[in-house]
Design goal:
Layout lengths: L1 H8 L14 E7 L5 H8 L7 E4 L7 H4 L16 E2 L18 E2 L21 H9 L7 H11 E3 L2 H4 L10 E5 L5 H12 L14 E4 L1 E2 L1 E2 L2 E2 L2 H6 L8 E4 L2 E8 L5 E8 L2 E13 L2 H11 L2 E2 L1 H6 L6 E2 L10 E3 L3 E4 L7 H4 L2 H10 L11 E5 L13 E6 L11 H4 L4 H7 L7 E9 L7 E3 L10 E3 L6 H19 L1 H4 L4 E2 L15 H10 L1 E3 L31 E3 L14 H18 L10
Parallel strand pairs: 1-2, 1-14, 2-11, 5-6, 14-26, 15-16
Antiparallel strand pairs: 3-4, 6-8, 7-19, 9-10, 12-13, 13-14, 17-21, 17-25, 18-21, 18-24, 19-20, 20-21, 22-23
Helix pairs in contact: 2-18, 5-18, 15-17
The structure holds flavin-adenine dinucleotide (FAD).
């Protein structure tokens, strides 16, 4: 009896779907991901508003709780399993089967915050000041900082006491409770290279840091867990899982009146009194807008869709791209290998004590650096490193090669020989790409994935900056901190780049087109901008131009992709969107509500 009662009051228990839904809600939020979960929570703080959250996926599993198993969620039912369209000129993803990179996206309550590597980064203050300067009042750093703080519950006391962190919010942030000795070598290497070791979420971004993660007591803290579970008993909030929205219904006055969705193969319609908020992510929000008649007129007409508002929906697709598989070898047994870590004692330590290697997401350190093209005095670094005490071969070829869609010959030639080596890697990433891509419909079928064209490396400057980033990563291996362990680059050249001198600029320029590595940060496809910006889809209050009663609030609204991993910024967007909506409908913004 007590057990059942505990289940109903436990703030971390899973959501239960309602037996019956209402015919009409004040707000319908489509997508319960990083942004949507926050918005459903914050809007339902207003007790006399009714809120429906429609989520296409189900709930999280025991596997998704375990940070070290993040890679095992891809290609499962929790993933939309999207792939990029091959480049006609083979500009990217050449080492992948069919020249297609996989683009995993969370299809689950919590969205991509359930699949992600849990790295907590807010971006540079310059990103947000730039958004504001583009004509988006209220999006400057000083304003958005309060929303980062509002959601945060940091668990490291030394961070909590600074002005840049907060305790008591819904989202738990902490350094991983477990790390390898190489993580400290990474910080020492940064200092040898002239960088500060600092909280890159604090006063300045340039520097090296041990990863801050969205982890709670050794488990993943997704936005589903953080924002929905604690409020799942609110009477005015209904959450429907496995509910796939197919269209926003818009009347002849161009006002949103409801949402059509599929559940258990049945078509349903639910009506809205105030607003529909699309938080389906940077790939699905533009898809839904286009299916609803909002998008580039020519493209919609091509698919026989009635045009309601002609807008550049799906353009401005931006992503962080880098070189995958940049691997270094050391002599000492300091790295994460399958034989040492896939063991019963390691599993037991996690199950019984919520500690040990399974609490670690793979990324031990992050750093923000300046290539020779970036003025270091501006504190707007153009390169990010993710430091991993492992490589794509550390699992013996079991999973990582699959989720990267690597061609067998490529993997066997370059990475299989690392079989019994101790390896570590850096993922050098281009932070502010000039090349932008686009999302389009493949068809009118809402169940078919949209066409995703990342258009990486269309600008030579992107290649030049990234090549400099790769050379900076090699400098890390050359520092005394890593030379102590005999660190050296893995020296098998990539098959398609053998005609270049190994490790020359031309070689690296070739390597990034072969082993193109995105860490899955698509953004910008429903760009926020002022009314005079012809490339904008939503206004600075996130309302879609040309219609009423629809907002977009997720990674799609970023005018330019921010410097770093987007989960925390998207949560911030969810927080700020909620306050904008409350202001517009005359409700008081709240600071916190249990
Ligand atoms: C593998 C991976 C690793 C990553 N690692 C990191 C990291 O370590 N740190 C970091 O900061 N960021 C990381 N990211 C990126 C980050 O997680 C995303 O940028 C962020 O979660 C995007 O939030 P969102 O709200 O825009 O979209 P999502 O979180 O993807 O949410 C969209 C939600 O909408 C639902 N949905 C979509 N279409 C429909 C529909 N038609 N009807 C109903 N529901 C729908 C989806 O199922 C999903 O739940 C990673 C992403 C991936 C995929």
């Amino acid at each position: 009896m007590n057990y059942y009662r505990y289940q109903s009051i436990d703030p971390e228990n899973k959501v239960q779907e309602p037996q019956m839904t209402r015919r009409q809600y004040d707000f319908i939020v489509v997508g319960g991901g990083s942004a949507g979960a926050v918005i459903a929570n914050r809007l339902s703080e207003v007790r006399n508003w009714t809120v429906l959250l429609l989520e296409a996926g189900g709930d999280e599993t025991e596997i998704s709780d375990v940070p070290a198993l993040a890679g095992y969620l891809q290609l499962t039912d929790l993933d939309w399993k999207y792939t990029t369209t091959p480049s006609p000129t083979r500009q990217y993803c050449q080492a992948m089967k069919g020249d297609r990179c996989f683009w995993p996206r969370g299809k689950v309550l919590g969205g991509s915050s359930v699949l992600n590597a849990m790295v907590y980064v807010r971006g540079s203050r310059n990103d947000y000041n730039h958004w504001e300067a583009l004509g988006n009042p209220g999006w400057g750093y000083e304003n958005v900082l309060k929303y980062f703080l509002k959601s945060e519950d940091v668990r490291n006391p030394y961070l909590a006491k600074t002005a840049y962190h907060e305790t008591g919010g819904y989202l738990t942030v902490q350094e991983s409770p477990w790390r390898t000795p190489l993580s400290i070598a990474f910080l020492q290497a940064g200092m040898e290279m002239g960088y500060e070791v600092r909280d890159i979420n604090g006063e300045q971004q340039t520097g090296f840091m041990l990863t801050q993660s969205t982890i709670r007591r050794g488990s993943r803290c997704s936005t589903g867990k953080a924002f929905i579970r604690p409020v799942r008993l609110r009477k005015n909030l209904d959450v429907l899982l496995h509910a796939h929205a197919t269209k926003v219904l818009i009347d002849k006055n161009k006002r949103a009146i409801g949402v059509e969705f599929l559940k258990k193969g049945q078509k349903n319609v639910v009506f809205v009194r105030r607003e529909v908020i699309l938080s389906a992510g940077a790939l699905n929000s533009p898809q839904l807008l286009m299916l609803s008649g909002i998008g580039p007129a020519d493209h919609l007409q091509e698919h026989g869709i009635n045009v309601i508002s002609d807008l550049p929906v799906g353009d401005n697709l931006q992503d962080h791209v880098g070189l995958g598989g940049l691997t270094f070898v050391v002599d000492a047994p300091l790295t994460v290998t399958r034989s040492r870590f896939q063991t019963i004692p390691v599993a037991m330590e996690y199950i019984l004590r919520e500690r040990g290697p399974m609490t670690f997401s793979g990324v031990e350190g992050v750093a923000f650096l300046n290539s020779k093209y970036q003025d270091p005095s501006v504190d707007w670094p153009d390169i990010q490193f993710h430091f991993l005490p492992s490589s794509i071969n550390s699992d013996g070829g079991e999973q990582i090669r699959k989720i990267l869609n690597l061609r067998d010959g490529f993997y066997n030639t370059v990475y299989k020989p690392l079989h019994s080596s101790e390896t570590w890697s850096i993922l050098p990433l281009l932070l502010r790409p000039k090349s932008t891509g686009w999302v389009r419909l493949n068809s009118r079928n809402p169940l078919q994935q949209p066409k995703l064209i990342p258009n990486y490396f269309a600008h030579q400057e992107d290649i030049d900056v990234l090549v400099e980033g790769i050379k900076l990563a090699i400098n890390v291996s050359n520092t005394q901190a890593f030379q102590r362990f005999g660190s050296r680059p893995h020296n098998i050249p990539l098959p398609g780049c053998r005609h270049y001198e190994f490790m020359s600029d031309a070689y690296w320029g070739c390597a990034i087109k072969q082993f193109t590595f995105t860490i899955y940060h698509p953004a910008g496809t429903c760009k926020m901008g002022p009314s005079w910006d012809v490339t904008a889809v939503v206004d600075p209050r996130l309302r879609v131009y040309g219609v009423s009663g629809i907002r977009v609030a997720d990674a799609s609204i970023m005018p330019t992709i921010m410097n770093g991993n987007p989960n925390a910024p998207v949560i911030m967007i969810g927080e700020k969107a909620s306050d904008l909506i409350k202001e517009d409908w005359g409700a008081r913004p709240t600071r916190q509500y249990g």
